[in-house]
Recover the amino acids of this structure.
């Protein structure tokens, strides 16, 4: 594979499309994505995220308003991963000794591609200025799906804790919520205090 597309590239997490195959597996689906986590907490974070994704899948009409990861596995070693997708080399740029840290700690979540981001959705929707009133009305109808999903989360005592335009995608004519990596039970006050102090920035709505 010559390389796909990096959908997100953070200090210790990188999302690639198409997905690279899990270690010791022969193939991966072209419409899947891989989220690779590295570092001391990669194992703990990936297990927490896949468990939350399993919880989300059990909620009311979750397929209508969310896209979740379906599998947690070990990725191939760094050299093999590079042979599958050369763009792996662009991930984790700030980490020194990238290969060693990757080979000793990497975990990988795999799931279906969610679609274009909310920003791209609006950019495409408003590219042509004709019929803006109708387009605005249609957009509000689409957004109602996200509001429904947030209500379901709230009814089940769950906070997403990372709602932003990158974490809302447009898939099969529906806007859906993705990336439940920071999600937790609302009554877990210690968790939200710690994560809020570390993660908060002005682009997020909680």
């Amino acid at each position: 594979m010559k390389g796909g597309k990096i959908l997100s590239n953070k200090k210790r997490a990188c999302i690639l499309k198409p997905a690279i195959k899990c270690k010791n597996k022969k193939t991966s689906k072209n419409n899947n994505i891989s989220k690779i986590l590295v570092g001391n907490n990669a194992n703990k974070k990936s297990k927490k995220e896949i468990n939350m994704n399993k919880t989300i899948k059990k909620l009311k009409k979750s397929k209508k308003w969310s896209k979740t990861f379906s599998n947690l596995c070990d990725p191939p070693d760094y050299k093999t991963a590079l042979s599958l997708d050369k763009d792996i080399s662009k991930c984790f740029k700030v980490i020194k000794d990238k290969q060693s840290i990757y080979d000793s700690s990497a975990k990988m979540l795999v799931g279906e591609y969610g679609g274009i981001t909310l920003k791209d959705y609006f950019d495409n929707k408003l590219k042509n200025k004709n019929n803006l009133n109708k387009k605005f009305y249609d957009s509000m109808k689409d957004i109602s799906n996200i509001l429904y999903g947030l209500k379901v989360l709230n009814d089940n005592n769950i906070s997403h804790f990372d709602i932003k335009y990158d974490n809302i995608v447009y898939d099969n004519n529906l806007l859906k919520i993705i990336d439940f990596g920071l999600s937790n039970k609302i009554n877990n006050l210690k968790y939200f205090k710690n994560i809020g102090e570390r993660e908060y920035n002005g682009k997020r709505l909680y």
